[in-house]
Structure formats: structure tokens, C-alpha cells
Amino acid sequence: MCSVTSWRKTERGVLVQLEEGILEVSFASPDIVRVRCTNEKNFLNEKTYVVEKPPLYEHFIVINHEKAVSLVTDKLRIKIRL
């Protein structure tokens, strides 16, 4: 399990800074979520094969819990334990 050092909301979801790496959870639509994780300091600029160029989807809310953060659309609820 990776230790979370910080997190922040982005225009597409959240970016979580880990002790060793980063985690990004973002939305392409209310029911399509993209999860990326790396042990590096930045993501490589690799092509995605699921959604060619995801449109900007901003209709989500972020809820900050004591030891977690939730991302919610009208179709999905994602909880990240901190």
C-alpha cells in the first residue's frame, strides 16, 4: 500500500501524490473513469487506447472525508482511501 502525502482536485478529477509516485483518477463521462498510477514523478506521455482523446468532463463533485476522498457523478461513486 502506498502512503498518500497530498491530493488536489483537477479539472478532470483528482491527482494524488504518493510517497513514491502519483495516482490520477479522472472522468471522460459520467460512467467512464480513467485511473493512472506510476512510481515515477510524472506520467509518461503515452497514448491511451480506451478513449482516444477524452473530452473535458467537469460534472462531478469531490467530497473530502477524514481518511478518504470521494469523486461522484450521477452514475459513479469512487472512494480513494488516504
Tell me what the structure shows:
The chain has 82 residues and is mainly beta. It has strands at 4-9, 13-18, 21-29, 32-38, 61-64, 68-72, 77-81. The strands form 2 sheets. Strands 1-2-3-4 form a 4-stranded antiparallel sheet, with no helix packed on it. The protein is flat and about 30 Å long. It starts with a strand and ends with a strand. The model has no long low-confidence stretch (mean pLDDT 89).
Give the gist of this structure.
The model has no long low-confidence stretch (mean pLDDT 89). The chain has a four-stranded antiparallel β-sheet, with no helix packed on it. The chain is 0% helix and 51% strand.
Distance between the termini: 10 Å
Biggest β-sheet: strands ordered side by side in the sheet: 1-2-3-4
| Helix/sheet category | mainly beta
Query: What is the residue-mean pLDDT, rounded to a whole number?
Result: 89
Which sequence of SSEs, written as H and E, runs from N to C?
EEEEEEE
Give the amount of beta strand, in percent. Answer: over 45%
Shape descriptor? flat
Total count of helical runs of at least 4 residues:
0
Share in helix: under 10%
Q: Tell me the total number of β-strands.
A: 7
Radius of gyration: 13 Å
